[in-house]
Amino acid sequence: MANDKKILIAGAGPVGIVTGLYLARNGLDVTLFDMAPKPPEDHRAATLQPSTLDLFEELGLTESILEQGFKSRHFQWRDRVKDEIVAEFDYGRLAEVSAHPYVIQLEQHKTVYTALDAASRCPNLVLHRPAEVTAVRQGPDWVECDVRHDNGESATYRGDYLVGCDGGRSIVRKSIDVSFDGFTWPERFNIVSTPIDLGKIHGFKLRNYCSHPDRWVSLMQVPGEDRKGVWRCVFPAKPEESDEEVMSDEWIDARFRECMSAGPYPIVHRNMYNVHQRVAGRFRCGRIVLAGDAAHVNNPIGGMGMNSGFQDGITLARKLIEIANGGNAETLLDRFDRQRRLTAIEYVQAQSIANKRLLEEKDPAVRSDRLSELRKIQDDPARHLDFVKRASLISMWEKSEHIE
Q1: Is pTM beyond 0.70 here?
Q2: pLDDT tier at 262 (50, 70, 90 boundaries)?
Q3: Higher pLDDT residue, 342 or 265?
């Protein structure tokens, strides 16, 4: 294999480090830059889909992920208005198409640390942090990025290709003047975590979506630092509610009382943020390519954002390896753009928007029809399988691989 290609990666979050690890394991020289001194340990993405677990096998990451995370085979849709379970979906039906017919619930930073540990054993992978990419340029046969290091000094790095994995506010994307088309939802989300065992008290599965026209909630259990379990709840905040109000103990307590029962529910974490649905106008500009949140962002209902980003990164890594072995760069990178941009719109954007709208539907008749449709899907084996293939992003991967 030719290994004279040098790949620069802006961002060493989950997508950046997995992409870099894949490239380094296959003989390419990789240099990553991340502006944070260490991986953020706040409550971010925590769902690893079956499609991701299958892809991680090639990198030797899956076994460690399974040891650390909580395995969840089922997830429920509930109706808070009638206080009933509408439908329960079973990832076990994926056994014929996935070696891992279940979800693993694991905090994002633990997945990142697992990949970082594997990357530390690759001598051809170098990670600079804290180091902020401030600008990028490219020529006919090179790319460059300017990087500001933590000592205040700046340096310029040159490579053959640059991958932008630097998040929704991507400097790489902005430097190549690529649009980020879409919208921002009017309400904010407040992620609240409690150690109280909501599953034991209320019979929740490890993943649940509870619909309500005004106060829906999405909740899941993650291991927490002691593996005793922490329940992470996503509550929507109305546009007219102030940030101070939404972050208060009183507001959070009211949400728990509405959705479950009287507490107390001790809070170990709270974080409010704006929610976006956006896709880059293109994922490739010359020798610069976008992946993960730099290419597409979506609301978190369904656990699709990070997982689709892993598919971006591994698809791109395979293309760059093929280029290093003599493949046509224009053909391969143009195909990457078609594969990942089209499926981001068709699967991640469409499904995450549909999930949110189903949770919050206000029209009683429409709401009833949509929930009834979920019951029909649950009861039809073929539709049930198709539903969980789409939810797990296996359908997205299959579609992407067939795009020429």
Answers
A1: yes
A2: low
A3: 342
Q: Average pLDDT for residues 342-362, to the nearest whole number?
A: 92
Residue 381 — pLDDT band, cuts 50, 70, 90? very high
Phi, psi of 13 (to 5 degrees): -75, -160
Contact 33, 10 (CB under 8 A): yes
Residue pair 386/43 in contact (Cβ under 8 Å)? The answer is: no
From CA 108, how far away is CA 224, in angstroms rounded? 11
Instruction: Considering only CA atoms, give the Rg of the chain.
Output: 21
Domains with residue ranges and CATH for the chain: 6-72+102-181+277-359+398-402 (3.50.50.60)
The structure tokens 């107390």 sit at 264
Alpha-carbon gap, residue 270 to 234, rounded angstroms:
10
235-241: Cβ within 8 A, 24+ apart: 235/189, 235/190, 235/192, 235/259, 236/187, 236/188, 236/189, 236/190, 236/360, 237/187, 237/188, 237/189, 237/190, 237/272, 238/187, 239/186, 239/187
